[in-house]
Design goal:
It catalyses: L-lysyl(4)-[histone H3] + 3 S-adenosyl-L-methionine = N(6),N(6),N(6)-trimethyl-L-lysyl(4)-[histone H3] + 3 S-adenosyl-L-homocysteine + 3 H(+). There is one protein chain. With 428 residues, this protein is an alpha+beta fold. Helix content is 50%, strand content 12%. The protein has 4 domains: 68 residues, Beta Complex (Beta-clip-like), CATH 2.170.270.10; 146 residues, Annexin V, domain 1 (Orthogonal Bundle), CATH 1.10.220.160; 95 residues, Alpha Horseshoe (Serine Threonine Protein Phosphatase 5, Tetratricopeptide repeat); 60 residues, Alpha Horseshoe (Serine Threonine Protein Phosphatase 5, Tetratricopeptide repeat), CATH 1.25.40. Strands 3-11-10 form a 3-stranded antiparallel β-sheet, with no helix packed on it. The chain has a 3-stranded antiparallel β-sheet with strand order 4-8-7. A two-stranded antiparallel sheet has the order 1-2. Strand 7 and strand 8 form a beta hairpin. About 1% of the residues have low confidence.
Length: 428
Amino acid sequence: MEGLEKFDSPGKGRGLRVTRPFKVGELLLSCPAYAAVLSAKERGSCCEFCFTRKEGLARCGKCKKASYCNKKCQKGDWAMHKLECSAMTAFGEKWCPSETTRLVARILATKKMQKEPCVSEKMMLIEELQSHLEDEDNEKRERTEADIAGLYRFYSKHLEIPDHKGLLQLFSQVACNGFTVEDDELSQMGTAIYPDVALINHSCLPSVIVTYNGASAEVRAVKDMKPGDEVLISYIDLLSPTEERNTRLRESYYFTCDCQECKSKSKDKVKLKVRKQSDPIEPQVISNMVRYARNKIREFRALKHVKTPSELLEICEQTLDEMGAVFDDSNVYMLHMMYQAMGVCIYMQDADGAIRYGEKILKPYSQLYPPYSLNVSSMYLKMGRIYMGVERHSEAVSAFKKALTIMEVVHGKDHPYVKDVHKEMGQK
């Protein structure tokens, strides 16, 4: 890792810092996954090996489920795919390990392949990854036990499975250090482990951003950095107000952030903006509405795979009407529900509805997220593609240009996603 070094970060454990200056957009680190797994929902749309999304992929001749760009990708993935190929055929529709279980199986297989004749540095890092096994609550432990049962059920013929204590440790390490591999619109493509990237600590004022080129992770600066500066990423969505960000960090990563933004809470007031009314809204009314909003967001997530799209859209609209009596349209809870409504409209191929919600989201997103945010670029991409679909070409090109302003920094100018957007801009 040229230009980088490991060090003991005060109060955070191990971390990375730069040993030379880095400019905005400059690549600090690029590394392949130690182990990666394509999400089951992406099967047939993406290559299992390189995660490239395209048409005309060739299916595995045995299981007929895994798909590849070409024979080179299929050969490259065989060491991992063979863990699942015969099992998928044997179990048929009953083959249902979780994505976490699938990733752990691949980690175990990779460890076995790398064990002899020497232990690689990356394997050492896998063993040293942070674990919070002792901090996990009963609910998390129950999920892990279910995942372990899936590992034995679907993989025992092909893997040397560690003892129970070792498995609990490994699943905890994956929970704390796994990365969600996302595409240009932030749709989940898979999950992976990158031991080098896992060294990077969290801040709500990040200095770098992690993006993906296929199944490889790339880390680029989103701030100018000088020698000695710590490399910091955000582990969570930065749109949330301070209290919610830290609740999420405690629940998932077992720490509280003490960055300058968390200390000052400087953006919380604008994030929780209320409607202007002749009589000021009582604080109790605001806190009640915040509680209502959080409950409705949790409820929506629980119902997402149960209700029909039209029912989900109705939930969004009713919630927005209720919150809109107190919250301004730029309030983060309004934005969250509008984003969900936009997603439902896209699924229903309701371009007018998606555009209506998207146009309300874009300006607040640009103000509330950091300057080089994937959340903002993905929104401009979505809008550009919807505009293009309804032949509003000038608006599409304008949205694409705004997306590219961010993407050329966070992905790099030569990234396939950037090249794809340039091609889309030229379509008539």
